[in-house]
Amino acid sequence: MGIFSRLFSLGKAEANTVLDKLEDPIKMTEQGIRDLKENLNTSLQGLAEIKALAIRTKNDHHKFKNEAVSYEKKAMLLLQKAQAGQITPAEADRLAGEMLRQKEQAESEGNRMGKELISHEDNVNKMQQNINTLKNKISTYENELRTLKARHKVSEATKKINKQLANVDSSSTISMLERMKEKVEQDEALAQSYGEIALETKTVDDEVNKLLETGTQSDSLLALKAKMGLLGTGDASTTDGTPTPPPPSSY
């Protein structure tokens, strides 16, 4: 295989690995949430910039409005000074005219800033709505991701158990149990057989000794029976087999 063929095979294998990862719903969801958070950060930065621009525009709007009022007051004061003879009427008219021109420019800039302020505030409101929507989506997706992970764990555990159960050979298990049962029954029968053989191998001496052990009576018991007149001919023997002497005469 040539070097290009090996590189092609390696690239194909890596592509399949990447494809398998992309097909993982959990990893895809996590990546999607990361992308949304990056978009949110970018949107927040843009919102901050637009708000700053709106604030500057609002300040400029108020500044030009105040300047227009100030220029008008200065023009009025110049005319009043001319009327009071403090300055010449021509000088007052020239300076007052200049103040009115400055007033018009300030009013024009103020009106322009007012329109820009309305536009900026409208953009701020729209972007804020979009950011709120994006935040809600991220929160929803994160909740769904937690649910998906929990379901994935349950499904993996269930799949593993079901796979193990599917691989269990019930017929061989039952056969093994039957063989064990047969062996236990055979061992029990063999134990009973050995017990019966043990009983059959007892000698006559063993039987006689057993009867003598259980049939003899103690000397104290025989003496009591003799005293009470309850001793029969079959009982006139001691524990060693010798005849019991008759009770002493009362005469």
Give descriptors for this structure.
mainly alpha, 84% helix, 251 residues, Helix Hairpins
Explain what you see.
With 251 residues, the protein is mainly alpha-helical. It has a domain at 13-168: Helix Hairpins, CATH 1.10.287. The protein has helices at 3-22, 25-83, 89-167, 170-200, 204-215, 219-227. The longest helix is centred in the middle third of the chain and has 79 residues, at 89-167. The chain starts with a helix and ends in a 24-residue tail after the last helix. The mean pLDDT is 80.
Quick overview of this protein structure:
The protein has 6 helices and no strands.
* Major sheet description: none
Mean pLDDT: 80
> What overall form do the CA principal axes indicate?
rod-shaped
Helix-strand makeup class? mainly alpha
Number of helices: 6
- The topology string of helices and strands comes to HHHHHH
Q: Give the N-terminus to C-terminus distance in angstroms.
A: 136 Å
Low-confidence stretches: none
CATH C-level label of the domain at 13-168: Mainly Alpha
Helix fraction bin: over 70%
**CATH architecture title of the domain at 13-168:** Orthogonal Bundle
Rg of Cα set: 60 Å
Residue fraction in strands: under 5%
Query: How many strands in all?
Result: 0
Helix and strand arrangement:
Blueprint: H1 3-22, H2 25-83, H3 89-167, H4 170-200, H5 204-215, H6 219-227
Helix pairs in contact: 2-3
